[in-house]
Amino acid sequence: MVTVLIVSQILSWIVILGLGIALLALARQVGVLHVRVAPAGALLTGKGPVVGEAAPVLDVTTLEGAPLSIGKALTKGRKQLLLFVSPSCPLCKELIPIAKNFARTEKLDIVFVGDDEAKEQQAMIARLDMTGLPFVNGPLVGRTFHVDRLPHAVLIGDSGTVLSKGLVNSREHLESLVTAHELGVVSVQDYLANSKSPNSKSKVA
């Protein structure tokens, strides 16, 4: 009887060890796959203002009570980056510090947009060191740009034109918004999908 118990314990440990090794191997493969499959860029949605056309002009007020214009002409060479976020969105909390640094590096006029309780937004602003950056809270901007998933970004040029837009969750996605505009295409995915076609029509008019 004792021998049977010992053998059973040994077999159990062998099975557990085997499962542990299999789990480590699976984790390694997931890591390799994550490295190999690089993010192509911000995911473009078919809703809202069209890339290449004039952005809706909105006169809004920030949480601090300051007037702000969205979609109006800017100083030549400047761009306005609208980033739609929420305190209840985990990806937004991770992306906000990245977006702040990205906007500073690229010299973009970043505007955060949300539609939650003002107290929740203010708590997030304090927690993520967003004080001093314009934050528009309310449904108008999101509804106008047809934003239904977060985090979402819209890049507007100095003439008030929508340069690029899409769902974003990393610095690479934010960079793809600028890259798409520089390439003269609607989105990076569009460029990659049509780059082999001699009759590609992905360029923005």
Quick description:
The protein has 205 residues and is α/β, with parallel strands linked by helices. The protein has helices spanning 2-36, 90-106, 118-127, 139-144, 171-183, 188-194, and strands at 58-61, 67-70, 79-84, 108-114, 135-137, 152-156, 162-167.
Provide a descriptive summary of the structure in words.
- With 205 residues, the chain is an alpha/beta fold.
- It has two domains: 1-37; 58-194, Glutaredoxin (3-Layer(aba) Sandwich).
- Helix content is 43%, strand content 17%.
- The strands form two sheets. It has a five-stranded mixed β-sheet. A two-stranded antiparallel ribbon has the order 1-2.
- A hairpin with a 5-residue loop joins strand 6 and strand 7 (162-167).
- Mean pLDDT is 82; it is low at 30-40 and 200-205.
How are the SSEs ordered, and which strands pair?
Blueprint: H1 2-36, E1 58-61, E2 67-70, E3 79-84, H2 90-106, E4 108-114, H3 118-127, E5 135-137, H4 139-144, E6 152-156, E7 162-167, H5 171-183, H6 188-194
Parallel strand pairs: 3-4, 4-5
Antiparallel strand pairs: 1-2, 3-6, 6-7
